[in-house]
Amino acid sequence: MPVRKLKGSWWVDFQFNRQRVRKRSPVNTKQGALAHESRLKQKVLMGEPINEKNKQERQQSFKEFAEEWFITYVQTNNKPSEIRGKRIMLNKHLYPFFGKIPINQITTMQIEKFKAEKERAKLDKKTINNYLSCLSCCLKHARDWLELEKLPVIKRLKAPKTTMDFLTEKESETLLNNCVGIWQEMVYFVLKTGARFGELRALKWQDINWETGVLSIKRSIFRGIIGAPKSNQSRHIKLIPELHKMLNNRKRKSGFIFSNGKGEIIEENKVRRELWRAYERAGLRRVGWHMLRHSFASHLAMKGAPLIAIQELMGHSSITTTMRYAHLCKSTLNDSINLLSKSQNKIISRQPSVNQRSDFTLFNSIIDGYDNGLFTNIKQKQAHTDLSLNCGDGGS
Fold this sequence. Notes:
The protein is mainly alpha-helical. The chain has 18 helices and 8 strands.
């Protein structure tokens, strides 16, 4: 077949005089690949070299290409926080090591030396892997744009799983008791919705449907720039009655839900400082707003909420991220292992216990979300339905 799709990219693939010509199409569509194939065949028939077009570009240094890649691709496709992160990686780490090397001459050995240098500098393995991901993305675009023949192999370091800290329910109550006014409302809001820090500050009154009690998270803010939430996906969360009442007591028609005296977004550093002061008053370890989000998910997992529901509420793009909370589902794990016991062979009632019935009440809003169209992904909705049917045995 002259053109074919391989791993998301269209390729031209044909033979001439027993020699194979295989090139990635610069325009990633079938029609673009067919047009590229026609141009290549014409060059071959005329005896023209087909690799001369980008010969000069391939000799440019990594820094020269990366700057073009940053302006053309990164600033167009990435969020402000990602743009800032890649700029720091390039300037402080990748340019000093790879900057002067021709883009087509970066080798696997050089990449291994880069990893070794960063490890000697005592950098965290996960941080080094982030640098490697940035380098890999840049080199893949160099392959596509400059038609490089091959890429160096990039092997990530085996990084240990990061430990996840969260507040217990008692610690959460202690923290709330040491907050006042709008700061107490913000802490309580994150503990009951799992909103990210940027999402919290960008919430508007129009995002709440007061009739259904559903909150829509549509935007986030980073360093003063408002954009889409992480993974560019909005999500919907049903407010518990206590939270609905708290917000309803001071609701407005428009504007930011949590704002300063002028109705503007509260300064980022001020919000962080107020939380740290509350931790000090409460005698708790000093952590950030993001741990309150982890606390929300951890409390749900310990109460027996299905992981697929936690994924939807947290806005995780992959269930792999949500699996960090799986070890907290102790009741589910215990009920599962007890199935191996001989005593479980007898017929038992499928009726939930008193504690399990309280779990049903707690997560009724999650399950009711089906009727409100909150689970828009059909596969997720089906998976959630299958899991929720097992709630009588402690969930899954």
